[in-house]
Amino acid sequence: MTRPTQIEFMRDVQSHTMKILRDDGIYRHLVFQQPVNSWHHRFEVVTWPGALCIRGDVGTYVFSRLADMFEFFRSPMTSDDRLYINDSYWAEKLIATNCNGRNGDGVMRFDPDEFRDAVNRRYVEHVRSRMRGMPNARRSLRLALEDEVLAYADDSETEAMRAAADFEHEGFRLQDFWEVDCRKYTVQFVWSLYAISWAIREYDRQKSPQESQAA
Q: pLDDT tens across 35-73, in order?
């Protein structure tokens, strides 16, 4: 599971156009899609007092923090057009998700590589503190971890964490491993955050000349 980058996101929406269905104060309804009316990477952004909803090809996420959620998500304009996202903080403002039956909760998902890294860190810590000058014991422990724990990393979160909890080899255990967070933010969630940030920027760009003329 590879985290999407801004470059990858911009490639996905490079031909998207914005259609404003409603623009009444903080009541907004924006649609972003390819000109050919394709549903591929199509999404909508809807706001009302105290909430913002993004829905479309990647699922649905609803956030709540300020009366005008565009203020909360708005990225500062930079010379390189970098989009700002803060996945951990923004995830705290989620009040609802619906990701069309995808695995995980649509926000975070168990990541086998995170699990392997966490197990390997415990192994290295133990070797450095308890097994210096014991190559045979280190090799035995390593093989046991690979056969009895790491082999389950790709099965499921339940199986992997069960294997870690049950592991014991010559007095070594993965103590309190259930406390280790082996999840990452999902691809669709991070993509949606980029989409929100970009959508607000596109909206601001379209509105700015009009507001200047009105002034």
A: 877 788 999 999 999 999 999 988 899 999 999 999 999
Instruction: Please provide the DSSP assignment of 41-85 as one string.
Output: T-EEEEEETTEEEEEETTEEEEE-SSSSHHHHHPPPP-TT-PPP-
CA distance 103 to 105: 7
Strand pairing of 168-169 and 172-173? antiparallel
pLDDT tens, 121-167?
999 999 998 888 898 999 999 999 999 999 999 999 999 999 999 99
Cα radius of gyration rounded to whole Å, the chain = 23
pTM: 0.83
Residue 166: both structure tokens together = 């049950």
SS3 content of the chain, % helix, strand, coil (to 5): 45, 20, 35
Q: Cα–Cα distance between 68 and 70 in angstroms, integer?
A: 5
Rounded to whole angstroms, the Cα distance separating 135 from 138 reads 5
Instruction: List Cα–Cα distances, 214 to 62, 159, 211, in angstroms.
Output: 32, 62, 5
Distance CA 10, CA 56 (A): 17
> DSSP letter at 106?
S
Phi, psi (rounded to 5 degrees) for 192: -65, -35
Q: Which amino acid is at 82?
A: R
Closest CA to 72 of 95, 55, 56: 95
